[in-house]
# Entry
Amino acid sequence: MHYEGKIYRPWIEAESVLIQTTLGCSNNQCTFCTMFDDKRFKVRELEDIFLDIEEARLIYPHVKSIFLIDGNVMAIRTEMLIKILDKIKMTFPEIQNISLYSGFNDFRRKSIAELKEIHSAGLSMAYSGLESGDPVVLDRIQKRMTREHAIEGMAMAREANIKVLASFIFGLGGKYRSTEHAVNTTSLLNIMQPDAIAPMALAIQPGSALEGELKRGEFTLPTPLQILEEEKYLLENLEDFDCYYWGDHGNNISPMRGMFPAVRQPFLDRINTHIAHNPITKQNVIETFSW
# Structure
């Protein structure tokens, strides 16, 4: 099997077989991210993708889950993506889940009919980076996406029965826009109501544009207390819709996961305990590890 450049997948997909279908990210402008700065966005040749799928069959006797990498695989034209999904199902008849990265704008660039075809071909889940619901933060990080775009993309995915995990970053508003970031992200999630969410604490990536902003004094890191307060606000104000809470990223101060809203109170109890007793809340800036 062949991989080019740095390879990433969600921590949730740790046991999935990875099939590289695109190189890089079709946006690749986000100031906080360096995941795909070593390559330009490109769709791999279909024949090469098929060869990797066939080779994976020789390596793995039983495959339950496959994750398609790199970034924004949903940007592939529909006809080709369906061929890839069909090839996976034919090669791995035991397959249970096929997932990929997709921007919310990638949903918007397809029709509902196309999205339904993709779902029928076997797509189980799309991982979509929301990052923030605050318009100011979205503009600063060069996400090239608005709240309205996210709402529209989520609605289209839902109509096509494609499950969506929305990831976002505590602390992305920095020290001075922490409250707006938390409030506006929570309000957007309440409108979108994704099937799953994956909040993670901000990590400054070496070489990122955000690191440059930090060094120039244009961005100020939030405190650990602000990170906890952002999560507390989220837990207190998310509406009662069914949603799996993947809050166990390695950078989170209080890693925890479970089905929302049933986990609301125990998760809040844990956050409040950290706020009251964790010595980390006395630190001036959050310290996390790069991806």
